[in-house]
Amino acid sequence: MEAHAPRAQRSRCEIVAIGDVRLAVYERPGADPPILFLHATGFHAQCWNEVIGRLDSHRTIAFDARGHGRSSKPEPPYKWRDFGRDAAALTRGLGLKGAIAVGHSMGAHSAALAAALEPAAFRSLLLIEPVIFPRDHYKGPSAELGMVRKRRNHWASWDDMYQRFKDRRPFDRWNRKVLLDYCEHALAPAPDGNGLVLACPPAVEASIYSHASDPDSNIYADLARIQIPVTVVRAARFTDFREDFSSSPTGPDVATHFPNARDLHFPDHSHFLPMEAPDLVADLVKQAIKP
Question: Exposed/middle/buried for 175, CB within 10 Å: 0-12, 13-18, 19+?
Fold first, then answer.
């Protein structure tokens, strides 16, 4: 078996109380503007390490959303607006002004809502494959995904996870270092002391997906209030993400619902574009940094 030594932590971690949850926040000091990173469902803040490492001396902040990583894990249900509200509250707690928000998937949905709630916190948004469906998709809760609840939830080590995933779809398309970061930080000690379990429990992930199409998850009215520049990045083809997690859940016309947005399409990449192409994402962030 190919063995890997533990990978060094690249940012200082602090546990920050936000309302009824405690969020694990990873911050690297540096130059303004600060850059806030928001991850996708089932992932964690450390998935951004390879992008952050390409951003020279800028101040960067990434955090584990509620239910993920080292953050609090309240009992389901998990409603999508709560993630955006958490992000907005975190910007207040950190005193962020004029930051750049970089969100992927659920994290992009959260970034957009946070910008509507705290307009002074951000100067631009980079929304990568946001889970913002076409308007007519918000009809109510969906049936929970059995495949999510049945995810393997016991591992001997993070290297065990890496070896199992590295040659399988969709992970075989990922940058190897991103996959290493994902595996190392995707697990937590099992409550019974026997091995490791997923840091985002399957019941939490399943609840998030089941509420993605709630009417309350429809943030189109919020998008219309966001006046700052927005870049929407889409990949692959649009389809219901419950059918294929690699396809795009982003409504093809989402960018038109912001007052000031551009739409970028990268059809050669999948929904997991930040994991596949950290160089590309870092370049997009650098473009957002420019005045």
Answer: middle
Cβ atoms of 12 and 24 within 8 Å: the answer is: no
pLDDT number for residue 1: 32
pTM, 2 dp: 0.94
Dihedral sign, Cα of residue 145, residue 150, residue 131, residue 199: positive
Note the CATH architecture for domain 12-289: 3-Layer(aba) Sandwich (3.40)
Position 244 scores a pLDDT of 62
Closest CA to 271 of 127, 62, 141, 166: 127
Query: How deeply is 191 buried, as exposed, middle or buried, from its count of CB atoms within 10 A (0-12, 13-18, 19+)?
Result: exposed
Other CB atoms within a 10 A radius of the CB of residue 281 amount to 23
> In sequence order, which residues have a C-beta less than 8 Å from that of residue 127 and are 6 or more positions away?
103, 108, 111, 112, 230, 231, 232, 233
Residue 3 has pLDDT above 50, yes or no: no
In this predicted model, what pLDDT tens digit does every residue of 61-105 receive, in sequence order?
999 999 999 999 999 999 999 999 999 999 999 999 999 999 999
Report the distance separating Cα 127 and Cα 100, nearest Å.
11
At 238 the pLDDT is 78
3-class SS string, 61-115:
EEECCCCCCCCCCCCCCCCHHHHHHHHHHHHHHHCCCCEEEEEECHHHHHHHHHH
Distance between CA atoms of 30 and 43, rounded to whole angstroms? 25
Domain ranges of the chain: 12-289
- Asked if pLDDT for residue 4 goes beyond 70, the answer is no
